[in-house]
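dumping these here so i dont lose them again. two proteins, back to back, each one seq then structure tokens. dont judge the mess
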Amino acid sequence: MKNRHSKPPYEKRPKLRSNKWWIVVLFFIIFILINFNVFAINTNNISNLTQSAGNSAINIGNEFSNVIQTQVTNTEKILSTVTGDPNSNAQESIIPSKISISPTYQPTISTNKPPEPQIKDPTIIPTTIPKLDFKQSPKTTSYPYVVDGNRKSISFTTYGGLSDYFSKKGHSYHYDPEKEVVMPLLENEYQDDNVRPLIELIRKSSTNPDEQSKIAISLVQHIPYNWNKYYGTSMDWFYPYETLYNNKGVCADKSLLLAYLLNELGYDTVLFEFSGHMAVGVKCSSNYGFYDTGYAFIETTRPTIITYVPDTYMSGFKVSSNPHIIHLNGGKKVLDVSTEYRDAIKMKQLQAMGEVLDQSHYAEWLRLSNNYDLQYDT
């Protein structure tokens, strides 16, 4: 028995053949035509873009060519101006309105070298150290001397300005009096400049160098002794120039002056420094030297024969055989003192005979005294 509510079995229906295939063909043809038109349009656009890009490239090339031509023209004008080409106009504008360049144009550079700049040597303005003016308070002094019994003199002008300048200089020392005091007294530029005229006057007084030195010795020996300084408390030494200006001095002052003059005259000179006294030594033959020093002894406090050494001094001082020797720089010459050495020995012999002499010995004593002006009171 069948169930009324059951589903009946499926039944197939037959298909109907369609006659619409031509519509599909028509759509295909239309699709083809549409795509062909789009391709044609795109091809035209590409052609137009290509042509535009080509035109832009041509324009850029033309502009670049114009720039190159302008630079070449400017170079030509500049070279024409430098080389002095009369066909070029130096006042013409550098950028011309029209450009025309020959294909075979080759710019030429002038081989003429521009003149090298002349470098002048810099002008050096010499700097001079101003000299101090010491020509105040002039004083002319006549300095006497005796050579071979003939008394003469040399007039020389000194200045208080320079003497005051030296008097303000201290002469103290800490370790070495020779280097710190004595040598500065003898080596000074201002002193050299102002004593040099006196050296020249001494040289003009004789053509014999040894006689020139003996003139200097006698001149210093005749300078008065400074008794005020001797009895005073001052122990300071003077510059040689100060002694000349003051025209007086103690043994140290006069010895420094004489040593300075002899050294400037070219003689090998030393100072004999004793305890409480000073004298001068001049290079001589070893036969006439003071205690084998090789230097002849010269007393400066008063006129005395060269090589004569006093036995005693007024103060009781006696010359010792071991003085401190201070050697001056410069002089090399040796002084002939052979005559003075013999006369000094004779004077010693006469003095040993006592205060009363016979006529012949007195005449000898008188000759020596006059020859060296030994009775001159300083």
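---- next one ----
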Amino acid sequence: MRSYDEHELSRYFPLLYGQDYQDLKSDIRDHGLLEPITLFEGKVLDGRNRLRVCKELEIAPKFRDFEGKGSALDFVISINLMRRALTPGQKSAVVARLTENGKAGEKHLVPGQPGTTKVAARIGVTSEAAAIARQVHQERPEIFNRLEKGEIDLLTADAFRRVTAPQAKQLEKKMESEELSASQALRLAKAINQADEYGGATSVKALMSQPMTSIPETFVHPKTQTKAAKPETHFSWAKGAEAVAAYEAIQDLSHLAKAVRSAMDRGDLKDRGGAREVLKQVDRNLLTVHGEYVKLLSKLT
């Protein structure tokens, strides 16, 4: 069987995976290849999945050259939108790829003005959704890959993008165990960022140990916040003062732990066993105080 390269335009839409691919394979096995594979410039423009199946089943594929009206890319978009049930997240990923550098739009889709808004409208998503997908693609390709496959939705991808890879794994487990929505996951990701900034890994650990219902909608240091999540509701400054005190206790304990670890690293402490016990106690206290801090913040609205 002759080998054909994939045309660059075909790659803007994701390949089939999992059950969708198995269903296509079963259909071709039972009925043969009914839809020929379309070639353009000597490469596969449409039919990458069908060609994969033909190779696996050792079925001779049928080919035809692209001779349609309009651009080759417009053909790829039309045929995929008509044939496939793509999720909104997958469509946003398509726009992110199409508008990544403008070259595809300039050459094949909208000569001269390949703006994101026009391309997004053509695919059927908002330019804002496309912008999020593009950001995920640029910052976290491994998450973008899951978005393209339809494994996660756009809000979940945005949530995972905002945290480290290990934190994203923790977040995904919490989503499953507590049946969190994508919007809740996004809010929790923002809270993780705040916790990491203010108290480091220990604060993040304490935050993740809390049920979602106890995590405040606006997770910020009380000193920097004058209003709660709802504009008309202000902080109770008595409780705010308690939260500030808890936050400062977290900072003091964190600095103590850092000082002990530095002294151990330098070899300044003879009783290393005793120092390790101190560190364990400091870590336990940090978890306790941070748990109280989270509870106090949740009561400030």
